[in-house]
Write a structure and sequence with these properties.
The radius of gyration is 26 Å and the shape is globular. The protein is of the alpha/beta class and 615 residues long. The two termini are 44 Å apart. The mean pLDDT is 96. α4 runs parallel beside α8, α7 crosses α8 and α9 crosses α21. The protein contains 25 helices and 24 strands. It is 39% helix and 16% strand.
């Protein structure tokens, strides 16, 4: 049996496909006689655009359409004309959508005329290898390009078996994809490590795969969906990824000079926080919330092998949350290796300063801590299990340990009020020296999130997001099962407070690059050099209990708790004087107040800051 594994646009150009990296070894282990080939369609598409446009459409344009426009469906729209045999399909709807939302679409429009020829070239190359089975992995905006190619493959070779899998096929989405596209023979819903090899064995034997959990199959003209199994894939059954074929494709590609490649590893699946408190807006884990993790020793062995083999030092983990055991059995190994690795990790925002320090020492340069908000009541509405004060501490410690921190400020939660935001908005100018969010974004309703599964949480009315109208030619009831994002009535803040929030975040982003608020020790005195945007340049000097108080508030405390600590340390200060001082420090922008909790804002570290997009 010959198996061809395919990843199509818009997979990131700088990353290998983890799915192909896992499925290749998996198929070879489960079916030793199988011949396995890979097709890296994202690289091919970037090459195709570069060549056919005579250099006008470059990899940066690929990123603009395939990543930056993910919530507008532009990448899918580029290929929908091929899928529906109509070069102009959906163009008018896209133009209307873009005009209403001020979305730039010229680059996507410039790409679309090349899509049909590209799909034809892909089909010819894959069929030349004589495959028996072609397996597509699809995540985010990979659906339409994959469907367009699958349709062309089946048109040219009807006896070919086409299989789809990936996160776009989880739960009801997989069945909807299958029943609406008869050229797709099978869809694997959920994790593939057990189901895909089982399907291949059935195909080799010519038997009906009625016992493969979660599989969608055809019973004559009827699409059948096998019940989804409850068994999750054990970490021991997840192979180590093989990126040799990706490396060969990248090295031979003219796109290589535009790309800074990174390696992708997986230490854990699911979310240990979500098992207990599923964040209300989050739909990332789909039907596989159960948290499982590889031992740190094994993950380090995988990283070490991949780095040595590919000579690439940037390593991206795809875990939705770090296994806390890795602070004991992984990160110390990385820190002790002496390698100049650059790790990227998703973490929870309540890490301690010591844990953030270890991340920095291990070579972690980029974290996504899921901060989401700086207001404690809004964080409670999200079920984040963290406070605004703690999130501000995390932002400050990221400065101290030279960690790049990516986060979004989310709003629009049912039950939130203007008063949940005004105290935070009043203090945002004082935070300009800390890393700002990517923007202020109203939440969208995501499939699998508690907001989606429980309409009683506030989003009772929903329909497939409007962007899908220029992506799919399907009735709304089918889209409701196929897609991941939904439009709803707006909840939470609107009007002046919403505008003020968005403007305040924009100002934060504009003023951050040249802002500093730095500690310095001058003998027994504590200096704070204020060089923040929008404030006069000044140096504050603190002595005695005032210096001690500022340091004690690094951990975030109430005034009574601070008073007890200062008294225990031998400082003589009354509760009334201390209360007056914290308000003075707040007015100077040296403290952040979250209800009764006060957090000091100066940092000890001054990391090098590159212009956005420079690294």
């Amino acid at each position: 049996m010959r198996v061809h594994l395919v990843t199509m646009p818009w997979h990131p150009l700088d990353l290998p496909s983890l799915q192909l990296g896992l499925l290749g070894p998996l198929v070879r282990r489960a079916c030793p006689d199988a011949e396995v080939a890979e097709f890296h369609g994202s690289l091919r598409w970037a090459e195709f655009l570069l060549e056919r446009s005579a250099g006008r459409l470059r990899p940066g344009d690929y990123v603009a359409v395939g990543s930056d426009a993910i919530f507008h469906g532009l990448g899918d729209w580029v290929f929908s004309g091929v899928l529906y045999d109509d070069p102009g399909w959906g163009t008018a709807r896209l133009r209307d959508y873009a005009a209403e939302r001020d979305v730039p679409v010229d680059t996507a429009v410039a790409m679309r005329p090349y899509a049909a020829a590209f799909i034809g070239a892909c089909a010819a190359e894959i069929l030349a290898a004589g495959p028996d089975v072609v397996g597509f992995t699809t995540t985010f905006m990979q659906n339409v390009s994959s469907l367009a190619l699958a349709r062309e493959l089946k048109r040219l070779r009807p006896e070919l078996t086409v299989v789809f899998g990936g996160s776009n096929c989880d739960g009801p989405m997989g069945h909807a994809l299958h029943r609406n596209h008869p050229f797709v023979d099978h869809v694997v819903r959920g994790e593939a490590e057990y189901a895909f090899p089982a399907l291949l064995r059935h195909l080799a034997a010519g038997t009906d795969p009625v016992d493969v959990p979660g599989l969608c199959r055809w019973d004559g003209p009827v699409s059948r969906a096998n019940p989804i199994g409850r068994r999750t894939v054990a970490p021991a059954d997840i192979p180590s990824p093989d990126y040799d074929r990706w490396q060969a494709a990248l090295d031979a590609s003219p796109v290589r000079e535009y790309v800074h490649p990174k390696l992708v590893v997986e230490g854990a699946r699911g979310c240990w926080w979500g098992e207990k408190h599923h964040c209300t807006f989050c739909g990332l884990n789909g039907t596989a919330m159960a948290f499982r993790a590889k031992p740190g020793e094994r993950l380090w062995a995988e990283i070490e092998r991949l780095v040595r083999r590919h000579r690439v030092l940037d390593v991206v983990t795809v875990d939705n949350i770090i296994d806390m055991a890795y602070f004991r059995d992984l990160l110390p190994r990385v820190a002790g290796s002496g390698w100049d690795l650059r790790l990227h990790y998703e973490v929870k925002s309540n890490l301690t300063p010591a844990q953030l320090r270890l991340l920095g020492e291990s070579g972690t340069v980029h974290i996504q801590p899921g901060i989401e908000s700086l207001g404690s009541r809004v964080l409670d509405l999200m079920d984040k299990g963290v406070t605004g004060a703690r999130n501000v501490r995390t932002l400050r410690e990221c400065e101290n340990h030279a960690l790049t921190c990516s986060w979004n400020l989310l709003y629009g939660f049912p039950g939130e009020t203007a008063q949940d935001y005004v105290p935070v908005l009043d203090q945002l100018p004082a935070l300009v020296h800390l890393q700002p969010p990517s923007g202020a974004h109203r939440i969208q309703l995501e499939r699998f999130s508690p907001h989606f599964t429980d309409p009683g949480l506030g989003f009772g009315k929903r329909r497939p997001a409007r962007m899908y109208q220029h992506v799919y030619q399907l009735p709304e009831d089918e889209l409701a099962d196929l897609v991941h994002l939904f439009d709803t009535e707006e909840a939470g803040i609107t009007g002046p407070v919403e505008r003020r929030l968005r403007e305040a975040v924009a100002a934060w982003r504009a003023g951050h690059a040249h802002s500093r608020l730095l500690y310095a020790q001058d003998g027994p005195d504590l200096l704070v050099h204020d060089r923040r945007h929008g404030r006069p340049r000044v140096t504050h000097r603190f002595t005695g209990w005032r210096a001690a108080a500022l340091r004690r508030l690094e951990d975030g405390r109430t005034v009574p708790a601070l008073h007890r600590l200062l008294t225990a340390d031998g400082h003589e200060v009354t509760a009334g004087v201390l209360q007056e001082w914290v308000h003075q420090a707040l007015a100077l922008g040296l403290l952040f107040r979250d209800g009764a909790t006060w957090v000091s804002l100066p940092t000890w570290g001054e990391p090098v800051r590159l212009p956005e997009g420079a690294a």
